[in-house]
Design a protein that fits this description.
Oligomer: single chain
Shape: globular
Structural class: alpha/beta
Helix content: 40-55%
Number of domains: 2
Radius of gyration: 19 Å
Order of helices and strands: EHEHEEHEHEHEEEEEHHHEEEH
CATH topology of the largest domain: L-2-Hydroxyisocaproate Dehydrogenase, Chain A, domain 2
Bound molecules: adenosine-5-diphosphoribose
CATH superfamily of the largest domain: Lactate dehydrogenase/glycoside hydrolase, family 4, C-terminal
Largest sheet: 6 strands, parallel
Number of strands: 14
Number of helices: 9
Length: 312
């Protein structure tokens, strides 16, 4: 039987993720949204592309959670973008509410599934999804580090004129502007980055990667990035469904690793059919450890703010 991936939120990131999964042929897809017509229309459009891609995946668009029953993976991209006049806390509460509803509506229908959370602020949303689901923490994972690392690889590749395929890197910490890139673990075909670039140039590229999401928002004006977020999500889906045991930076629940406990934050993990199968602990330089601590504390405090608001 084919694997089943449900994508919740049929907006830009969700629909593009569904596109990548359908085109790969590795799973059947259910696309869910609260807006009527959108998931059905996008699913039909994708189904009509399937013959051209020579794939036999089925794709269903729905507003009914029961269609997600027995999913192997549930990807959550549902949420609101930050609108003018909305504070970060307003966005946090609005999206926390969406995550709670979606997880409450899907977890009992797919008790053996793995959640991949994309909605921002991602690390916080992942922790909320884990709490609401009651799932083993390894089966609730956040997508952030894969995207941050891909952005950093892109900028290094542009700077050096080297294929991004030959650039390896790891990015830890909270997703986005609190990410912690690790130049000491960044190589060009195994050669340390510092052999190619000086400290200041590396710092410039880190700055650009950290602001990668904002740079795209500034250009698009009415939306945020979706091709690279969807491609990053697809890499995680593939690692799980094909049990690839990839070493990828993902948001995972720490239980003492990196000196933190009970908080979701980006760390290198082994990703396979059981979700997060192992967290890899690496020695960090002093400033990297400080940045990591800062982003873990930021996630913790946002989780507290969101749960205080829920109890009101
Ligand atoms: N249940 C299901 N879908 C919902 C719900 C809900 N409770 N609330 C909102 N949605 C849907 C919207 O109807 C919309 O179709 O979520 C979708 C969000 O799509 P977009 O606005 O296009 O946002 P997108 O660019 O896809 O980003 C989604 O991913 O990268 C992150 O920061 C980004 O948090 C954002 C998320």
């Amino acid at each position: 039987m084919k694997a089943k991936v449900s994508v919740i939120g049929a907006g830009n990131v969700g629909a593009t993720t569904a596109h990548l999964v359908v085109q790969s042929g590795i799973a059947d897809v259910v696309l869910f949204d609260i807006t009527e017509g959108i998931p059905q229309g996008k699913a039909l459009d994708l189904a009509e592309a399937a013959p051209l891609w020579n794939v036999a995946s089925s794709i269903t668009g729905t507003n009914d959670f029961s269609d997600t029953r027995d999913s192997d993976i549930i990807v959550i991209t549902a949420g609101f973008p930050r609108k003018p006049g909305m504070s970060r806390d307003d966005l946090l509460h609005a999206n926390a509410d969406v995550i709670r509803k979606v997880v409450a509506g899907t977890s009992a229908l797919s008790p053996g599934s793995i959640y991949i959370i994309v909605t921002n602020p991602m690390d916080v949303m992942t922790q909320i999804a884990w709490t609401v689901s009651g799932f083993d923490s390894g089966r609730v994972i956040g997508m952030g580090g894969v995207l941050d690392a891909s952005r950093f690889r892109t900028f290094i590749s542009l700077e050096l004129g080297v294929s991004p395929e030959d650039i390896e890197t790891l990015v830890l910490g909270g997703h986005g502007d609190s990410m912690v890139p690790l130049p000491q673990y960044t190589t060009v075909k195994g050669v340390p980055l510092k052999e190619f670039l000086g400290h200041e140039r590396i710092a410039d590229l880190i700055h650009r990667a950290r602001n990668g999401g904002a740079e795209i928002v500034a250009l698009l004006k009415t939306g945020s990035a979706y091709y690279a977020p969807a491609a990053s999500t697809f890499q995680m889906i593939k690692a799980v469904l094909l049990d690839e045991k990839r070493l990828l930076p993902c948001s995972a629940l720490l239980r003492g690793e990196y000196g933190h406990r009970d908080v979701y934050v980006g760390v290198p993990v082994i990703l396979g059919k059981n979700g997060v199968e192992k967290i890899i602990e690496l020695p960090l330089a002093k400033d990297e450890a400080l940045q990591f601590d800062k982003s873990a504390h930021a996630v913790k405090s946002m989780v507290e703010t969101a749960s205080a608001n829920e109890q009101k």
